[in-house]
């Protein structure tokens, strides 16, 4: 709260007398010469609203300046603290202070001092607090934007990974489907080839069957090739037996030449038909022979009759097949290779 300060006292100016009273031999420059001061009504009138500060360069002025700046800073800090605490600034009035510049300037001080209400300082502190709040809001907005950007990047990365996984899965599924299709196609091709081969073989055998025939008819297979038993001197059967009544006709299985015909020990009456490729067909245990050596025969020609001559237990045809090298083979397999089924 402003108040009227008393008028400054006039400087004491002593009269120009000798200074012997003070025990000095002569006056010094800093002590005089002095003049007397007679107060008047004008000089002692109280000063209102106008302040004069004497020019001085001592530490007092600077101390006052520092003090004034410190007070302003302290009050400003108090206002900022009040604003930051969410409380409205409290206006504070201060007495008129001399202008700070006039305390340290060599020039004439300003004619009037400035009385600054601290409510303005509080308002500045509020503005500062608002600026701080705005800065915090800006920081929060930036953080939220960064979080949203990171979230968007994470979602984009996850979507890319999911798309890559889906693409990989689709590629694997496509590759698997392609492999399965290839496998099915290969299996179908193989099956078709096998069927074609079977068909071709059937056609070939059908053509061969027209060229070959079974050695007899109305028969029963009584013994097979390789069958073991005491009936055979070698310990196993060397041919294929067709059991049939005595006198049943025997036919040439294929065209060829008669190379042997006659009685031969355990084989009884035996005929050998040699084919063009050198294969030999033996007919044993005949009751009679109808051909002679060197005779040419064709498929189905009668060459003899079923009998029971030689080492036998009943009437039957004992048929053996020998390759051109003389080795015996299974007559059943050979006949089947010619399209015949005994």
Automatic annotation (TrEMBL):
SUPFAM superfamilies recorded: Duplicated hybrid motif (SSF51261)
Biased composition (Basic and acidic residues): 15-31
Keyword terms: Coiled coil, Hydrolase
Spans annotated as Disordered: 1-61, 81-134
Coiled coil listed as a keyword: yes
InterPro entries, per the entry: Cell_wall_metabolism_enzyme, Dup_hybrid_motif, M23ase_b-sheet_dom
Ranges for domain M23ase beta-sheet core: 236-330
Single GO MF annotation: hydrolase activity
Keyword Hydrolase carried by entry: yes
Membrane-spanning parts: none
Major enzyme class: hydrolase
Listed PANTHER family: MUREIN HYDROLASE ACTIVATOR ENVC, PEPTIDASE-RELATED
Segments forming a coiled coil: 144-211
Name of the protein this chain belongs to: M23 family metallopeptidase
Sequence ranges of Polar residues compositional bias: 122-131
CDD domains: M23_peptidase
E.C. code: 3.4.-.-
